[in-house]
Amino acid sequence: MTQPPFRAEHVGSLLRPAALQKARAQHEEGTLAAAELARIEDEAILRLVGRQEAIGLRCATDGELRRATWAYDFLSGFGGIKPVPRAVPPAAQGKVLAQSTRGMNLLTVVDRLRFAGNDLIEHFRFLKAATRVTAKMTIPSPTMLVTASRDWRDTVDQHVYPTLDALFEDLGLVYRQAIRAFYDAGCRYLQLDDVNFAYLCDADMRTKMTARGDDPNAILRSWIKVLNMAIGERPADLTVTTHICRGNFRSAWFAQGGYEAVAEPLFNELDYDGYFLEYDTERAGGFEPLRFVPKGRKRIVLGLLTTKTGALESRDLLRKRVEAASKFVPIEQLCLSPQCGFASTSEGNELAEEAQWAKLGLVVELARSIWPDA
């Protein structure tokens, strides 16, 4: 396989090394200059890239090491968005996002959205220069600006955007500009991370959406429209995938329910090249919704290994689960990865670094034994 997603994959984020955690804390305290923090980040990313290459992965990320959270750092870079400090309960202070206070800010839309560059584009340029394999960039889906878990009216000035469709019209356009900027910087593999489709699989969350006056099915149609607007004019040689997540903060989860509620439009109406799907626990349901995946170019990356604990999965069980999934979608369209990243926020999940690398090594080893082209 020469085009992503590859048979052996990973979602993107990696555990922050202890030296980087310490440096970030010092920077937050004002005792370490920004230039020195950037140097330490550069060195940490170079080591992580080298480790990804060494275990045989055919794509590498920067581990999202420069970010406070997987979504905040990118979205906060758009014009028209204002970070508002979020209250942290006293019992959580020093624990929640301890390494970066900026990740605790709530993003609010106060003006028309604009794109005028983004720090993550420079982050990508560093990654591309650092690796011999395919450089993969991960950014939040545009729908993450107004997630299903909270009322969008609480975070959007309705004098600016009186309707969700009006907001999404501009949001799709600024994302299209951002995607073009990544492409111009050399990006050929882009992943949009998303929790909203998983939230729509959760019956309790759908009930809450209805109670506040939103129609979950209408919201779904709006998401599909803005996503296709964002990625619809991408160059032919840019692969765009998505990752559907049920929550991953410090090994926690927030939603449950199989993909049946969204599967048909997810796989057939969205113009993605591949889908990273969580399948590490019963919370994600069975493989039956994969029957909606169209035969052909689209690939499904089975997230069968968990990033929430360090216990290493059974090779035989993983192989059997790939075989079970292949009853619903041809095995030629399947790939393998952990279910999520290892550090959606700067703290990371509750497992050791060596357990992280053992899991990624197992992904590579198993993929090579299942698919001849891995």
Rough outline: globular
Cα distance spanning the termini: 7 Å
Q: Tell me the number of strands.
A: 10
Please state the second-level CATH architecture: Alpha-Beta Barrel
Tell me about this structure.
- By secondary structure, the chain is of the alpha/beta class.
- The protein has one domain: TIM Barrel, CATH 3.20.20.210.
- The protein has helices at residues 18-29, 34-54, 72-75, 119-130, 164-184, 196-199, 203-211, 216-231, 263-268, 315-325, 353-370; strands at 59-60, 79-85, 105-114, 134-135, 137-140, 189-194, 239-244, 274-278, 299-305, 334-338.
- It has a 6-stranded parallel sheet with strand order 5-6-7-8-9-10.
- Strand 7, helix 9 and strand 8 form a beta-alpha-beta unit.
- Helix 1 runs antiparallel to helix 2 and helix 5 packs parallel to helix 8 (216-231).
- The model is unreliable at 91-100 (pLDDT under 50).
Helices and strands in order:
Elements: H1 18-29, H2 34-54, E1 59-60, H3 72-75, E2 79-85, E3 105-114, H4 119-130, E4 134-135, E5 137-140, H5 164-184, E6 189-194, H6 196-199, H7 203-211, H8 216-231, E7 239-244, H9 263-268, E8 274-278, E9 299-305, H10 315-325, E10 334-338, H11 353-370
Parallel strand pairs: 1-4, 5-6, 6-7, 7-8, 8-9, 9-10
Antiparallel strand pairs: 2-3
Helix pairs in contact: 1-2, 5-8
Task: Please sum up the structure shown.
By secondary structure, the chain is of the alpha/beta class. It has a single domain (18-370), classed as TIM Barrel (Alpha-Beta Barrel).
